Amino acid sequence: MAALLEAEAVSFTYPDGTRALQNVTLSIPEGKKIAVLGPNGAGKSTLFLHFNGILRPQEGWIYFAGARISYSHTALQQLRQQVGIVFQDPDSMLFAASVRQEISFGPLNLGLSKEEVLARVEAAMAATGVKDLGDKPTHFLSYGQKKRVAIASVLAMEPRVIIFDEPTAYLDPRSTREVMALLETISRKGTTIILSTHDVDIAYTWADYIYVLAAGQVIGAGTPAEVFRDAPLLEAADLARPWLLDVYEDLKNKGWLPLEAPVPKSRDELLALIPYRSRSRLAI
């Protein structure tokens, strides 16, 4: 599948001397769900800021849709219409007086007709479950509501790629499930999604492909099963193994699953592998 976003030998150092990225090369296929994992300071957020031109590589190149990114004002405006970022802290994104004004801001700046802007705003509000908040001041929203409005403001731009930096950080379990369900809905419509997360269980069950960063370098990549069954890689990146894989390996070791049993991607897939007579003895 053709790459929509690419980093080629990208390096970047902040003015204080922090080496954030070192010769990073990776490829994001269109329409896929990509997780970028790694400890704090690994370079994940810095990489994301390169993907939509907020930061410019000091070495190397970023490509979008096969073309090297240009950093002229017009080219960056066009890029940011296609590559949206939802930052970890929604307060860093929200500035308008009301929810509807916030979500309208991006489409209005595209020069669209009022009818098209209204249609996009209504669709984005409906998709994110904030339609009843349209006239509410953004500073009166709960943290979870602010997250949804921030996502809606990017959705209304109808980008081809949406990048989520720690989308479930500080959310309760219910809100986390709702946000991940929303990301799944967005993905099914063909939008390419990239996210960073410290939640290995989310990364394992959700992603099609994973990149692992540490100290500004890509130290591993592969399918979720490949990445999370690579013990040296997990140790190098200070990552835990998802509970689903731990249970799967334990059941195989106890003889409750055949050695050739496929690696499950979800709780339901794991339960389906267990012989019926054995399920009543398990508490998963």
TrEMBL record:
- Tell me yes or no: is Cytoplasm among this UniProt entry's keywords: no
Q: What is its main location?
A: membrane
An annotated GO cellular component of this protein is: ATP-binding cassette (ABC) transporter complex
Task: Please give the Gene Ontology molecular function terms for this protein.
Answer: ATP binding; ATP hydrolysis activity; ATPase-coupled transmembrane transporter activity
Compartment(s) = Cell membrane
Q: What InterPro entries does the entry give?
A: AAA+_ATPase, ABC_transporter-like_ATP-bd, ABC_transporter-like_CS, ABC_transpr_CbiO/EcfA_su, Co_trans_ATP-bd, ECF_ABC_transporter_ATP-bd, P-loop_NTPase
Q: Which UniProt keywords apply?
A: ATP-binding, Cell membrane, Hydrolase, Membrane, Nucleotide-binding, Translocase, Transport
Q: What does this protein do?
A: Part of an ABC transporter complex. Responsible for energy coupling to the transport system.
- Fetch the PANTHER family from UniProt: ENERGY-COUPLING FACTOR TRANSPORTER ATP-BINDING PROTEIN ECFA1, HEAVY METAL TRANSPORTER
Protein name (database record): ABC transporter ATP-binding protein
The primary gene name is: ecfA3
